[in-house]
């Protein structure tokens, strides 16, 4: 069965219902430690690895998250697919607080994050035309529908740097571009997951209308937390339905993403770099 990674965002710091649950010590990676200890367990026989993106207690801001360590650790655990549960703001009136969105596209507006495993002597260019794995997205959408939870089946997630919320001018600019939801974390995760050949999809929980909507109070932490508490229970229900279905899959679209992506001449790649990235490179470079 496939192994499933779950990255919990704001408000989702643990997963109930995991059987054979075990807390794993922080995994060593070439990029430093991940955000927190991992929790491992099983949901209806499917092996799950859970990580709190911001650390339990929410003490790591979006820019400071060690995204490379988080995704590399998932790869070390043999994870085949990652579900990212994330709080987002809505940039459309019909996408309401308490809705869920399974986006199919991203726009990256971040500037301060390490977004590739391939640096310091090795270069790879993976395709990001379709950043979300369709097979995982479809399972999440069907899980929402089976539970009677309102879900939007596609949308574009614009990833801002943060940690500040948008200005009104920025919010209206993003709307004019056709963006649907706004968040601070998922684009880098999607890029790194693709480099690691791990299927990736976002389950976005809508908490607010950002600050563009005249009929809505300006976004505040209190507002986000209030809707998060309501959304988290639904997110857990969706995961309980979706994870076993993902576990049944034996093929993922992200597999083979590196097969034609590594451009650096093999004799120019340092042995130390080969060792550091062995779990990513071993299929392609000896």
What features would you describe in this structure?
Helix 1 packs across helix 4 (186-195) and helix 2 (134-146) crosses helix 5 (221-247). The longest helix has 27 residues, at 221-247. The chain has a single domain (4-281), classed as Rossmann fold, CATH 3.40.50.1580. Strands 1, 2, 3, 4, 5, 6, 7, 8, 9, 10 and 11 form an eleven-stranded mixed sheet that branches. The mean pLDDT is 92. The chain is 28% helix and 21% strand. The protein is of the alpha/beta class. The chain contains seven helices and eleven strands.
| Distance, first to last CA | 27 Å
Instruction: Provide the low-confidence segments as ranges.
Output: none
Largest sheet, strands/sense/barrel: 11 strands, mixed
* Number of E-state strands: 11
Provide the structure class.
alpha/beta
CATH architecture: 3-Layer(aba) Sandwich
Please, what is the average pLDDT?
92
Q: Which descriptor suits the 3D outline? A: globular
- Count helical runs: 7
What is the CATH superfamily classification? Nucleoside phosphorylase domain
Helix content: 25-40%
CATH class: Alpha Beta
